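Hi V.,

Quick status before I head out on leave. The structure for the redesign project is tokenized and pasted below; the design run finished overnight.
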């Protein structure tokens, strides 16, 4: 069997991992999968209806329905793989208000300095190390959500205040320094943690 270029250069699937999520995330995953199933049923009906309208070579409705079914199938397969490959542990953000602050952990507000090794430029960030998929920014404090499994969060988890780490990030090599570490306040959590959304799934993964 001949080798195909796509198979030779296709990146391997990510290794199984543990992903921390907020309560209700697993339900959202199930609801998204059910919604895709229902959408597929409707598209099949459209395909059958278009098929009955005559010559398939000029039947654009049939072709569109067929392609839409394929797209839904790809999304369902990707979502199924995402669930099968990973373990999801639900955590309650209420516990973040009072947890110990000896080292950087999920749920902490961290002020971090990043020095780019190549350019020497420094940047300062304050972010909440949060559960998977969170991207909000608090307009009042400027705190950003940083998902715990992102490269930057993974690099600083477990560090103490004042600790430094030289790491390789997607943007290049950098030296990270933890400047401050604290628990979030309830108003900050209220502004940062919005309604849980389904994940954005890479259909090629």
């Amino acid at each position: 069997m001949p080798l195909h270029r796509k198979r030779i250069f296709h990146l391997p699937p990510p290794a199984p991992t543990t992903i921390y999520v907020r309560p209700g995330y697993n339900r959202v995953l199930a609801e998204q999968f059910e919604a895709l199933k229902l959408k597929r049923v409707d598209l099949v009906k459209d395909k059958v209806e278009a098929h009955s309208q005559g010559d398939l070579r000029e039947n654009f409705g049939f072709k569109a329905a067929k392609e839409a079914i394929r797209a839904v199938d790809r999304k369902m397969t990707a979502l199924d793989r995402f669930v099968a490959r990973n373990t999801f542990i639900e955590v309650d953000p209420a516990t973040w208000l009072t947890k110990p602050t000896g080292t950087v952990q999920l749920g902490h507000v961290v002020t971090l300095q990043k020095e780019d090794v190549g350019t020497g430029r420094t940047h300062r960030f304050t972010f909440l190390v949060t559960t998977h998929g969170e991207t909000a920014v608090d307009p009042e404090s400027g705190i950003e959500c940083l998902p715990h499994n992102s490269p930057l969060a993974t690099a600083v988890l477990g560090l103490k205040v004042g600790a430094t780490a030289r790491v390789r990030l997607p943007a290049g090599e950098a030296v990270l320094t933890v400047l401050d570490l604290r628990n979030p306040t309830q108003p900050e959590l209220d502004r940062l943690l919005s309604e849980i959304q389904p994940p954005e799934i890479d259909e090629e993964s």
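Above is the designed sequence. Helices lie at 5-9, 25-51, 60-85, 151-156, 186-192.

G. will cover questions while I'm gone.

Best,
W.
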